[in-house]
């Protein structure tokens, strides 16, 4: 199944590792370090601005990528229950 995550970005549900709330992810040291490492490695798709509400961590061809989304993590999580 394909999930729309905002800003004309779509991803395959089977590739999703985690859907993280931005505030919660930045409030945890290990998660913040993980996201920052992906940012440093240019593994981010989407804009990193004040409109970002969630991070979607994806494994694609054995590479970890993080997408940013202006849609809440709760709303994104609910999108995959309607198969």
Give the amount of beta strand, in percent. Answer: 35-45%
Q: What is Rg?
A: 12 Å
Catalogue the unreliable spans.
none
Kindly give the count of domains: 1
> Quick one: how many beta strands?
6
Mean pLDDT: 90
Apparent shape: globular
Structural class: alpha+beta
Oligomer: single chain
Main sheet overview? 4 strands, mixed
Strand order of the largest sheet: 3-5-6-4
Which range best describes the helical content: under 10%, 10-25%, 25-40%, 40-55%, 55-70% or over 70%? 25-40%
**N-to-C CA distance:** 8 Å
Number of helices: 3
Give, in order, the helices and strands: EEEHHEEEH
Protein name: DUF370 domain-containing protein
InterPro entries: RemA-like
Organism: Tissierella carlieri
Notable characteristics:
83 residues; alpha+beta; 4-stranded mixed β-sheet
Question: Can you describe this structure?
Answer:
This protein is α+β, with helices and mostly antiparallel strands. It has one domain. The protein has three helices and six strands, in the order E-E-E-H-H-E-E-E-H. It has a four-stranded mixed beta sheet with strand order 3-5-6-4. Strand 1 and strand 2 (9-12) form a beta hairpin. The N and C termini lie close together (8 Å). The mean pLDDT is 90. This is DUF370 domain-containing protein. InterPro entries: RemA-like. Pfam families: RemA-like.
């Amino acid at each position: 199944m394909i999930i729309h995550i905002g800003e004309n970005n779509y991803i395959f549900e089977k590739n999703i590792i985690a859907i993280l709330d931005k505030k919660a992810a930045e409030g945890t040291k290990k998660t913040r370090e993980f996201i920052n490492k992906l940012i440093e490695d240019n593994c981010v798709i989407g804009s990193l601005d004040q409109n970002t509400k969630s991070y979607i961590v994806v494994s694609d061809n054995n590479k970890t990528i993080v997408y940013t989304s202006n849609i809440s993590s709760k709303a994104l999580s609910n999108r995959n229950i309607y198969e």
